[in-house]
Every structure is written in structure tokens, then in C-alpha cells.
Design a protein that fits this description.
Helices cover 44% and strands 0% of the residues. The protein is mainly α and 135 residues long.
Length: 135
């Protein structure tokens, strides 16, 4: 009987902690994210601004802050967001719901693992100085 109370207590504690760490525990696959990134390349590039701003240095960057990209929406410039795994995942899930009046004309990536894969790819590329030289 004591063991089952211990097991129940352990299970209950694990269930309560799990939702808090879903992004910390869930890892993205950069190789899968690289394949997904081809969908982004119509508007974005790692190194160069295109219709959308470049993605080198995206993780940890304040939204709307690429100084040589002039076309940010007012909503993006004033959002106060800093791009990390959670903010990127939330934004990429439904850009127009997350940040109304965003200029990003993309419906979203509904699958959480796909978003995490894409973010893992962006993070990996952003940390590789041969791809994204420090600015």
C-alpha cells in the first residue's frame, strides 16, 4: 500500500511539472527543419533580406530590429517580442492571431514538432559562423 501511494505521488508530480517544460524537453530536428525551410525561402533567406528580413541571428533577436530591413509592420516593430523557442513557436503556429496586423503573409505551421524542427534548424544555422558570420 505504501508503494502505491509513493507511485501515485510521483506520477502526480510528473504530470504537474510536464506542461511547464514542454519546450525545454521537446527537441527539434535540424535536418527536418532544413527541409521545412525551403517553404520560407520565397520570402526569407538566412543571410540576406528579401521580402522578409534575414534569419541569421534570429534566435535571441528583438522582433523588428534588423536595422537594414525597412519593411517591418508597425505591429512587429512595436511588439516588444524577443525571438526564442516559445515566442517563435507561438508566432509560427498562427502569425495573424499571435500578432494581429503582422506583415508576414503566411497562414502558419500547425504541427508543433514541425515548428520545433524549423526553429532547431534556424538556431543551428545561426550559431554556425560559416553560415551566419557575427555582425
Amino acid at each position: 500500500m505504501g508503494l502505491s501511494r509513493f507511485a501515485f505521488g510521483f506520477f502526480a508530480a510528473a504530470v504537474l511539472v510536464a506542461p511547464v517544460s514542454v519546450f525545454a524537453a521537446t527537441k527539434g530536428d535540424p535536418a527536418a527543419g532544413e527541409k521545412m525551410y525551403t517553404e520560407c525561402e520565397g520570402c526569407h533567406s538566412l543571410k540576406d533580406n528579401k521580402l522578409g528580413p534575414r534569419h541569421c541571428g534570429l534566435i535571441g533577436r528583438k522582433a523588428g530590429s534588423v536595422s537594414d530591413y525597412p519593411s517591418y509592420s508597425h505591429a512587429m516593430r512595436e511588439s516588444g517580442l524577443t525571438w526564442d523557442v516559445k515566442t517563435l513557436s507561438d508566432f509560427l503556429a498562427e502569425p495573424f492571431s499571435y500578432l494581429p496586423e503582422t506583415g508576414m503573409g503566411y497562414i502558419g505551421i500547425f504541427d508543433q514538432q514541425s515548428r520545433l524542427d524549423l526553429i532547431a534548424y534556424l538556431d543551428k544555422q545561426g550559431k554556425d559562423p560559416s553560415v551566419c558570420p557575427p555582425q
